[in-house]
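Subject: Sanity check before I submit

Could someone independently write out the structure tokens for this chain? I want to compare against mine line by line before I put it in a report. The sequence has 104 residues.
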Amino acid sequence: MTEKKGNLHGKILIGECEYVFFKEEELIALYKKKIDVKEWFKENAIHSENFSKYLIPFDSINENLLIKKGNEIVCYGWREADKAVGVDRWQDRDDWTDFFNEKL
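---
Independent answer below. Compare away.
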């Protein structure tokens, strides 16, 4: 199986960042169980000194990506290439971005 990769589209955070890939079901479960999102992020985040917006892998499971740089947060969803979007990509998502801005 070929690993899929895509660039970030929309608002971009690069450089020194923390990020985490996640499934939508994982966040819904956190919400239902009233688990602290800050703790979840702290336990799962990966630190990068030089995060790049290019060729970010998609594992075919975790369809969302959360990036935090200081107080800035942007969430992305994986989008397969189709007629409207000519290339595989990570597209920014306002719904999850708003959710995480409230919680983190």
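---
OP: Matches mine. For the report I'm noting this point. Residues 33 and 82 are 36 Å apart (CA to CA).
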